[in-house]
Amino acid sequence: MVFSDLFKEFTPIRVDEDIYLRQHEPEKDARPFWEIYYDEENFTYFGGYKRPHDWNEEREIRAEESRVKGFKGKREYPWVVTYQGEVIGQIQLFDFFNHNTCAEVGYFIKKTYWNRGINTKVLKAVCRFGIETMGLERIEAFAHVDNIGSNRTLQKAGFMQEGTLRKRFEVKGKLYDCNVYSFVKDK
Q1: Are 103 and 97 a contacting pair, CB within 8 Å?
Q2: Is 137 left (phi over 0), alpha (psi -120 to 50) or beta?
Q3: What is the pLDDT of residue 161?
Q4: For the residues 151-163, what does the mean pLDDT come to?
Q5: Domain assignment of residue 167, yes or no
């Protein structure tokens, strides 16, 4: 299959009986994602999702529309993570490079769903999709060195740590090291 054809129609993923990965629906998802972003504990180790503390429906819908535009522009493949129908997070493949054989993966879920193995299942399913359906050879991930949960999730999902990048992540104005991981297609 040609890589660009994968972006003609979004592919949802049924992970298990409870976990479903679907396309963003901006008007439906704006409020749940704002609630996730608003809780700073969800992003203790990542400073990239700063959102205003005040609810503004129009602004939040526009923010969610950017995910749909990223998909249509073939820049990212973002899924909404739902658990028993509730929006609990997001996972996406993005930054496609090397003739679309490599990508980066990023993910987050609400803290009330941490330590349940959900992210590991979701990550495995998306990696399988990336390798088997998209034809990726390599998927990369970066985790703040102090983010024990994310580092453990990557390892459980079959990622190998390749090293540590010094002063790679900025969180609240300070630079931190991050671990670099890869998941590669078996030959």
Answers
A1: yes
A2: alpha
A3: 98
A4: 97
A5: no
- Give yes or no for residue 109 having a pLDDT over 70: yes
Q: Is residue 149 part of a domain?
A: no
Does residue 58 lie within any of the structural domains? yes
| CATH number of domain containing 24 | 3.40.630.30
Q: At residue 167, what is the residue type?
A: K
Pick the more confident residue, 174 or 166.
Answer: 166
* Residue 160 covered by a domain: no
Cα–Cα distances in angstroms (integers) from residue 1 to residues 6, 105, 135, 136, in the given order:
8, 21, 8, 12
Separation in Å, CA 138 to CA 57, 64, 181: 37, 27, 10
3-state secondary structure of 112: helix
158 burial level (CB within 10 Å; 0-12, 13-18, 19+): middle
Write out pLDDT tens, residues 64-92: 899 899 999 889 999 999 999 999 999 99
- Structural domain tally of the chain? 1
**Residue count of the chain:** 187
pLDDT of residue 13: 97
Dist CA 69 CA 77 (whole Å)? 10
Asked if pLDDT for residue 108 goes beyond 90, the answer is yes
Domain membership of residue 115 as a residue range = 3-137
- CA-based R_g, the chain, Å: 16
Phi first, then psi, for residue 173 (nearest 5°) are 80, 0
* pTM exceeds 0.85: yes
- 153: phi then psi, degrees, rounded to nearest 5: -60, -45
